[in-house]
Write a structure and sequence with these properties.
About 50% of the residues lie in helices and about 10% in strands.
Protein backbone atom coordinates (compact mmCIF):
# COMPACT_ATOMS: atom_id res chain seq x y z
CA UNK A 1 0.00 0.00 0.00
CA UNK A 2 2.63 2.54 1.03
CA UNK A 3 4.92 1.64 -1.90
CA UNK A 4 2.74 3.47 -4.41
CA UNK A 5 2.24 6.50 -2.14
CA UNK A 6 5.99 7.00 -1.72
CA UNK A 7 6.87 5.79 -5.24
CA UNK A 8 8.93 2.88 -3.95
CA UNK A 9 9.75 -0.18 -6.02
CA UNK A 10 9.41 -2.63 -3.15
CA UNK A 11 9.20 -3.04 0.61
CA UNK A 12 12.43 -1.80 2.20
CA UNK A 13 11.75 -3.15 5.69
CA UNK A 14 10.47 -6.64 5.02
CA UNK A 15 11.08 -9.17 7.80
CA UNK A 16 12.19 -12.03 5.54
CA UNK A 17 16.02 -12.26 5.50
CA UNK A 18 17.27 -10.94 2.16
CA UNK A 19 21.01 -10.67 1.45
CA UNK A 20 20.30 -7.79 -0.93
CA UNK A 21 19.48 -5.62 2.10
CA UNK A 22 22.59 -6.60 4.08
CA UNK A 23 23.94 -3.60 6.00
CA UNK A 24 27.53 -3.63 7.13
CA UNK A 25 27.19 -2.34 10.66
CA UNK A 26 30.19 -2.51 12.96
CA UNK A 27 29.13 -5.78 14.53
CA UNK A 28 28.24 -7.38 11.18
CA UNK A 29 31.51 -6.21 9.65
CA UNK A 30 33.39 -7.87 12.49
CA UNK A 31 31.40 -11.07 12.05
CA UNK A 32 32.23 -11.11 8.33
CA UNK A 33 35.89 -10.69 9.22
CA UNK A 34 35.74 -13.80 11.42
CA UNK A 35 33.94 -15.76 8.71
CA UNK A 36 36.53 -14.72 6.14
CA UNK A 37 39.33 -15.65 8.53
CA UNK A 38 37.79 -19.06 9.06
CA UNK A 39 37.42 -19.62 5.34
CA UNK A 40 41.09 -18.80 4.85
CA UNK A 41 41.99 -21.32 7.55
CA UNK A 42 39.98 -23.93 5.68
CA UNK A 43 39.19 -26.06 8.71
CA UNK A 44 37.41 -26.25 12.04
CA UNK A 45 34.26 -24.56 13.26
CA UNK A 46 33.27 -20.90 13.40
CA UNK A 47 30.45 -19.95 15.78
CA UNK A 48 28.29 -16.87 15.26
CA UNK A 49 25.66 -16.08 17.88
CA UNK A 50 23.20 -13.28 18.42
CA UNK A 51 19.86 -12.53 19.99
CA UNK A 52 16.65 -12.99 18.02
CA UNK A 53 16.40 -10.47 15.20
CA UNK A 54 20.03 -9.33 15.11
CA UNK A 55 20.53 -10.38 11.49
CA UNK A 56 22.35 -13.72 11.77
CA UNK A 57 20.58 -15.35 8.82
CA UNK A 58 20.97 -12.27 6.63
CA UNK A 59 24.68 -12.26 7.44
CA UNK A 60 25.10 -15.88 6.38
CA UNK A 61 23.12 -15.43 3.18
CA UNK A 62 25.21 -12.38 2.35
CA UNK A 63 28.29 -14.56 2.79
CA UNK A 64 26.85 -17.07 0.33
CA UNK A 65 26.26 -14.29 -2.18
CA UNK A 66 29.94 -13.27 -2.06
CA UNK A 67 31.37 -16.76 -2.61
CA UNK A 68 33.14 -17.70 -5.81
CA UNK A 69 31.17 -20.72 -7.02
CA UNK A 70 34.22 -22.04 -8.83
CA UNK A 71 36.12 -22.18 -5.55
CA UNK A 72 33.40 -23.08 -3.03
CA UNK A 73 30.36 -25.29 -2.80
CA UNK A 74 28.16 -24.21 0.08
CA UNK A 75 25.14 -25.74 1.75
CA UNK A 76 22.89 -24.46 4.50
CA UNK A 77 20.45 -26.23 6.80
CA UNK A 78 18.10 -24.74 9.37
CA UNK A 79 18.19 -26.94 12.42
CA UNK A 80 15.21 -28.23 14.32
CA UNK A 81 15.23 -30.94 16.97
CA UNK A 82 17.20 -33.38 14.83
CA UNK A 83 18.69 -36.65 15.91
CA UNK A 84 22.27 -37.36 14.90
CA UNK A 85 21.20 -39.50 11.93
CA UNK A 86 18.52 -37.02 10.84
CA UNK A 87 21.15 -34.29 10.89
CA UNK A 88 23.39 -36.39 8.68
CA UNK A 89 20.52 -36.90 6.23
CA UNK A 90 19.90 -33.16 6.19
CA UNK A 91 23.56 -32.44 5.41
CA UNK A 92 23.59 -35.00 2.60
CA UNK A 93 20.40 -33.53 1.11
CA UNK A 94 21.70 -29.96 1.46
CA UNK A 95 24.60 -30.80 -0.85
CA UNK A 96 22.13 -32.12 -3.41
CA UNK A 97 22.72 -35.81 -2.76
CA UNK A 98 20.23 -38.62 -2.28
CA UNK A 99 19.49 -38.81 1.46
CA UNK A 100 17.76 -42.20 1.26
CA UNK A 101 19.89 -45.07 2.55
CA UNK A 102 19.50 -48.30 4.46
CA UNK A 103 21.94 -47.26 7.15
CA UNK A 104 24.12 -44.42 8.39
CA UNK A 105 27.25 -45.95 6.86
CA UNK A 106 25.87 -45.56 3.34
CA UNK A 107 25.11 -41.90 3.98
CA UNK A 108 28.62 -41.23 5.28
CA UNK A 109 30.21 -43.03 2.33
CA UNK A 110 28.07 -41.08 -0.13
CA UNK A 111 28.94 -37.74 1.46
CA UNK A 112 32.66 -38.54 1.70
CA UNK A 113 32.82 -39.56 -1.95
CA UNK A 114 31.13 -36.29 -2.95
CA UNK A 115 33.50 -34.18 -0.83
CA UNK A 116 36.57 -35.88 -2.30
CA UNK A 117 35.28 -35.28 -5.82
CA UNK A 118 34.79 -31.59 -5.03
CA UNK A 119 38.29 -31.39 -3.53
CA UNK A 120 39.85 -32.89 -6.68
CA UNK A 121 37.96 -30.26 -8.70
CA UNK A 122 39.54 -27.56 -6.55
CA UNK A 123 36.34 -26.69 -4.68
CA UNK A 124 36.03 -26.40 -0.90
CA UNK A 125 32.86 -27.42 0.93
CA UNK A 126 31.20 -25.08 3.42
CA UNK A 127 28.32 -26.12 5.64
CA UNK A 128 26.26 -23.57 7.56
CA UNK A 129 23.87 -24.71 10.27
CA UNK A 130 21.39 -22.00 11.22
CA UNK A 131 19.43 -22.13 14.50
CA UNK A 132 22.18 -24.36 15.85
CA UNK A 133 20.88 -23.99 19.41
CA UNK A 134 18.31 -26.64 18.46
CA UNK A 135 20.98 -29.28 17.89
CA UNK A 136 21.35 -31.96 20.52
CA UNK A 137 24.80 -32.78 21.86
CA UNK A 138 24.66 -36.04 19.92
CA UNK A 139 23.98 -34.12 16.70
CA UNK A 140 26.87 -31.75 17.45
CA UNK A 141 29.13 -34.73 17.95
CA UNK A 142 28.01 -35.96 14.53
CA UNK A 143 29.07 -32.58 13.13
CA UNK A 144 32.50 -33.04 14.70
CA UNK A 145 32.84 -36.47 13.12
CA UNK A 146 32.20 -34.95 9.69
CA UNK A 147 35.17 -32.66 10.24
CA UNK A 148 37.37 -35.78 10.29
CA UNK A 149 37.02 -36.13 6.53
CA UNK A 150 40.45 -35.16 5.18
CA UNK A 151 42.57 -35.34 2.04
CA UNK A 152 46.14 -35.38 3.27
CA UNK A 153 46.34 -32.52 5.75
CA UNK A 154 43.39 -30.65 4.23
CA UNK A 155 39.88 -30.79 5.70
CA UNK A 156 37.20 -31.69 3.18
CA UNK A 157 34.44 -29.70 4.90
CA UNK A 158 34.28 -26.62 7.08
CA UNK A 159 31.30 -25.72 9.24
CA UNK A 160 29.77 -22.48 10.50
CA UNK A 161 27.38 -22.81 13.43
CA UNK A 162 24.91 -19.93 13.79
CA UNK A 163 22.61 -19.71 16.79
CA UNK A 164 21.23 -17.82 19.75
CA UNK A 165 23.32 -16.86 22.81
CA UNK A 166 22.48 -20.00 24.78
CA UNK A 167 24.17 -22.09 22.09
CA UNK A 168 27.53 -20.45 22.70
CA UNK A 169 27.13 -20.97 26.44
CA UNK A 170 26.38 -24.67 25.93
CA UNK A 171 29.31 -25.19 23.58
CA UNK A 172 31.78 -23.81 26.11
CA UNK A 173 30.32 -25.44 29.21
CA UNK A 174 29.20 -28.99 28.32
CA UNK A 175 31.94 -31.50 29.23
CA UNK A 176 30.86 -33.90 26.48
CA UNK A 177 31.56 -31.23 23.82
CA UNK A 178 35.24 -30.85 24.71
CA UNK A 179 36.46 -32.33 21.42
CA UNK A 180 34.22 -29.99 19.45
CA UNK A 181 35.48 -26.98 21.44
CA UNK A 182 39.04 -27.84 20.49
CA UNK A 183 38.12 -27.41 16.82
CA UNK A 184 36.42 -24.00 17.19
CA UNK A 185 38.79 -21.51 15.56
CA UNK A 186 36.72 -18.31 15.94
CA UNK A 187 33.54 -17.02 17.58
CA UNK A 188 31.62 -13.77 17.39
CA UNK A 189 28.46 -12.49 19.07
CA UNK A 190 26.30 -10.10 17.04
CA UNK A 191 25.26 -7.02 18.99
CA UNK A 192 22.45 -4.58 18.15
CA UNK A 193 23.37 -1.62 15.95
CA UNK A 194 24.65 1.54 17.55
CA UNK A 195 22.51 4.67 17.48
CA UNK A 196 24.77 6.59 15.08
CA UNK A 197 24.41 3.78 12.54
CA UNK A 198 20.64 3.88 12.38
CA UNK A 199 20.19 6.74 9.92
CA UNK A 200 22.55 5.02 7.49
CA UNK A 201 20.65 1.75 7.92
CA UNK A 202 17.30 3.37 7.10
CA UNK A 203 18.68 5.23 4.07
CA UNK A 204 20.49 2.09 2.85
CA UNK A 205 17.31 0.03 2.81
CA UNK A 206 15.20 2.79 1.29
CA UNK A 207 17.75 3.47 -1.46
CA UNK A 208 17.51 -0.15 -2.62
CA UNK A 209 13.84 0.33 -3.54
CA UNK A 210 14.14 3.61 -5.42
CA UNK A 211 13.74 6.08 -2.54
CA UNK A 212 13.97 9.75 -3.56
CA UNK A 213 13.97 11.36 -0.10
CA UNK A 214 10.23 10.80 0.25
CA UNK A 215 9.49 10.30 3.04
CA UNK A 216 12.12 12.28 4.93
CA UNK A 217 13.09 11.07 8.41
CA UNK A 218 14.00 13.87 10.83
CA UNK A 219 16.73 13.52 13.44
CA UNK A 220 14.23 13.21 16.30
CA UNK A 221 12.39 10.49 14.33
CA UNK A 222 15.61 8.46 14.03
CA UNK A 223 16.25 8.98 17.74
CA UNK A 224 12.74 7.77 18.60
CA UNK A 225 13.08 4.73 16.33
CA UNK A 226 16.31 3.73 18.03
CA UNK A 227 14.82 4.27 21.47
CA UNK A 228 11.90 1.94 20.74
CA UNK A 229 13.88 -0.71 18.84
CA UNK A 230 17.14 -0.75 20.83
CA UNK A 231 19.02 -1.12 17.54
CA UNK A 232 17.78 -4.66 16.83
CA UNK A 233 17.31 -4.97 13.04
CA UNK A 234 14.09 -6.99 13.14
CA UNK A 235 12.49 -4.56 15.57
CA UNK A 236 13.67 -1.69 13.38
CA UNK A 237 12.12 -3.27 10.31
CA UNK A 238 8.83 -3.93 12.06
CA UNK A 239 8.57 -0.38 13.35
CA UNK A 240 9.71 1.33 10.14
CA UNK A 241 7.30 -0.73 8.06
CA UNK A 242 4.41 0.43 10.24
CA UNK A 243 5.69 4.00 10.09
CA UNK A 244 5.56 3.97 6.30
CA UNK A 245 2.06 2.49 6.37
CA UNK A 246 0.89 5.12 8.86
CA UNK A 247 2.57 7.87 6.85
CA UNK A 248 0.82 6.82 3.65
CA UNK A 249 -2.58 6.65 5.34
CA UNK A 250 -2.12 10.08 6.91
CA UNK A 251 -0.38 11.45 3.77
CA UNK A 252 2.76 12.40 5.71
CA UNK A 253 5.96 13.15 3.80
CA UNK A 254 8.11 14.25 6.74
CA UNK A 255 8.43 11.61 9.45
CA UNK A 256 9.21 13.23 12.80
CA UNK A 257 9.36 12.10 16.40
CA UNK A 258 5.64 12.70 16.96
CA UNK A 259 4.85 10.41 14.04
CA UNK A 260 6.99 7.65 15.55
CA UNK A 261 5.30 7.99 18.93
CA UNK A 262 1.87 7.83 17.29
CA UNK A 263 2.84 4.63 15.48
CA UNK A 264 4.31 3.10 18.64
CA UNK A 265 1.08 3.88 20.48
CA UNK A 266 -0.91 2.36 17.64
CA UNK A 267 1.21 -0.80 17.70
CA UNK A 268 0.78 -1.07 21.46
CA UNK A 269 -2.98 -1.13 20.99
CA UNK A 270 -2.62 -4.21 18.78
CA UNK A 271 -1.90 -6.32 21.86
CA UNK A 272 -4.66 -4.96 24.08
CA UNK A 273 -7.45 -7.35 24.92
CA UNK A 274 -10.68 -6.53 23.15
CA UNK A 275 -13.98 -7.37 24.87
CA UNK A 276 -16.62 -8.39 22.40
CA UNK A 277 -20.00 -6.71 22.83
CA UNK A 278 -23.28 -7.56 21.15
CA UNK A 279 -26.84 -6.29 21.32
CA UNK A 280 -28.18 -9.62 20.13
CA UNK A 281 -30.45 -11.58 22.44
CA UNK A 282 -29.00 -14.77 23.87
CA UNK A 283 -29.91 -17.85 21.81
CA UNK A 284 -32.76 -20.06 22.93
CA UNK A 285 -31.68 -23.40 24.39
CA UNK A 286 -31.53 -26.18 21.86
CA UNK A 287 -34.29 -28.78 22.16
CA UNK A 288 -33.34 -31.75 24.26
CA UNK A 289 -33.63 -35.21 22.79
CA UNK A 290 -35.18 -36.93 25.77
CA UNK A 291 -34.93 -40.32 24.08
CA UNK A 292 -31.17 -40.28 24.69
CA UNK A 293 -31.29 -39.11 28.32
CA UNK A 294 -29.93 -42.39 29.55
CA UNK A 295 -26.66 -41.82 27.67
CA UNK A 296 -26.09 -38.31 29.05
CA UNK A 297 -24.16 -37.34 32.19
CA UNK A 298 -26.29 -36.74 35.29
CA UNK A 299 -26.00 -32.95 35.11
CA UNK A 300 -26.99 -33.01 31.44
CA UNK A 301 -29.96 -35.27 32.28
CA UNK A 302 -31.05 -32.85 35.00
CA UNK A 303 -30.83 -29.90 32.60
CA UNK A 304 -32.92 -31.87 30.12
CA UNK A 305 -35.55 -32.58 32.77
CA UNK A 306 -35.68 -28.92 33.78
CA UNK A 307 -36.16 -27.84 30.18
CA UNK A 308 -38.85 -30.49 29.71
CA UNK A 309 -40.72 -29.34 32.82
CA UNK A 310 -40.56 -25.74 31.61
CA UNK A 311 -41.94 -26.74 28.23
CA UNK A 312 -44.81 -28.60 29.92
CA UNK A 313 -45.67 -25.53 32.02
CA UNK A 314 -45.62 -23.33 28.93
CA UNK A 315 -47.91 -25.76 27.12
CA UNK A 316 -50.30 -25.74 30.09
CA UNK A 317 -50.37 -21.95 30.17
CA UNK A 318 -51.02 -21.78 26.45
CA UNK A 319 -53.89 -24.28 26.86
CA UNK A 320 -55.37 -22.27 29.75
CA UNK A 321 -55.18 -19.06 27.72
CA UNK A 322 -56.90 -20.75 24.78
CA UNK A 323 -59.66 -22.00 27.11
CA UNK A 324 -60.09 -18.51 28.58
CA UNK A 325 -60.25 -17.01 25.11
CA UNK A 326 -62.90 -19.54 24.12
CA UNK A 327 -64.92 -18.84 27.28
CA UNK A 328 -64.76 -15.06 26.73
CA UNK A 329 -65.83 -15.52 23.11
CA UNK A 330 -68.87 -17.54 24.17
CA UNK A 331 -69.84 -15.01 26.85
CA UNK A 332 -69.52 -12.22 24.31
CA UNK A 333 -71.77 -14.07 21.83
CA UNK A 334 -74.31 -14.81 24.59
CA UNK A 335 -74.43 -11.16 25.69
CA UNK A 336 -74.83 -10.11 22.09
CA UNK A 337 -77.75 -12.50 21.62
CA UNK A 338 -79.41 -11.33 24.83
CA UNK A 339 -78.99 -7.72 23.80
CA UNK A 340 -80.54 -8.50 20.40
CA UNK A 341 -83.55 -10.31 21.94
CA UNK A 342 -84.27 -7.40 24.36
CA UNK A 343 -84.37 -4.94 21.54
CA UNK A 344 -86.97 -7.03 19.65
CA UNK A 345 -89.19 -7.25 22.77
CA UNK A 346 -89.13 -3.41 23.06
CA UNK A 347 -90.54 -3.17 19.59
Amino acid sequence: MYESFYNLQGRPFQLTPDPRFYFSSRTHKKAMAYLTYGMNQGEGFIIITGDVGTGKTTLVRHLFETLDRNEYIAAMIVSTQLSAEDLLRSVVAAFGLDAQADDKGQLLARLEKFLREQFRMGRRALLVVDEAQNLSNAALEEMRMLSNFQEGDKALIQSFLVGQPEFRERIFSAPELEQLRQRVIATHHLEPMEEEELAGYIEHRLSLVGWDNDPCFTADAVEAIYRHSAGVPRRLNTLCSRVLLYGSLEEIHTIDGETIEAVVSDMASDTRQVTATSSALPPRPAPVNRQNDATLPLDAQQRGKDVSAMENRLNQLESMMKNQDETLRRLTDLMANLAGGGAKDDK
